[in-house]
Amino acid sequence: MVERLAFRLAHWLKSEVPDHPYSVARLQFGFHLFLNTVLTLLVATILGLLFDNLRETMQVLFAFGLLRMISGGYHLKSASVCIVASAGVAALLPFVELSVFYITLLNIANMVLTIIFAPSRIEEQTRIPSKYFPALKVASTVLVASNFLFQSQLLAITWFIQAISLIRFPKKGGDSV
């Protein structure tokens, strides 16, 4: 759905402004990012209002996006699935109750995962040169470690889900998935 709409918008824009310096592929990529973001926010807002936890839902999206921006992670194959999964998880996580013990356990797990795997799968997703990837690892680890100060159950579980998406398993032949 999102892919087709981005494709149509890119072709429409290029036909309306044929001298535009961006290629159809680049326009399509931009529309895809824009639509993915807007639709995720829209669906999450609707779910947050329905579940009466809009503030917490938006906090989850912000925290998830912030860590994802500097750490990378696995991408779902379909934008539509990504929108539904992201919005659904963001609206449901505020219902998870954690004790201080489990918050601390998740904080430790988040640090270990970011130290080992961050940044992950960002080579084709960012314009940041690879020489700065060690700084992204440090930034990711410092960010998740900040929850030792906040002791937020919402941050602990949100960042755990994002940190899990960093894991790369070796495939046959030595490359990682």
Task: Write the topology of this structure.
Blueprint: H1 2-16, H2 24-50, H3 54-71, H4 79-92, H5 100-117, H6 133-145, H7 147-150, H8 153-164
Helix pairs in contact: 1-2, 2-3, 2-4, 3-4, 3-8, 5-6, 5-8
Quick tags:
single chain; 177 residues; mainly alpha; 8 helices; globular
Descriptive overview:
This protein is an all-alpha fold. The protein has one domain (2-164). Helices cover 68% and strands 0% of the residues. The protein has eight helices and no strands. Helix 2 packs parallel to helix 4 (79-92) and helix 3 packs across helix 4 (79-92). The longest helix has 27 residues, at 24-50. The mean pLDDT is 94.
Quick structural overview:
With 177 residues, the protein is an all-alpha fold.
- What's the number of domains? 1
Sheet bearing the most strands, described?
A: none
**Helix residue percentage:** 55-70%
Global mean pLDDT:
94
Query: Which range does the strand content fall in?
Result: under 5%
Global geometry: globular
* CA-CA gap between termini: 26 Å
Order of helices and strands: HHHHHHHH
Compute the number of helices. 8
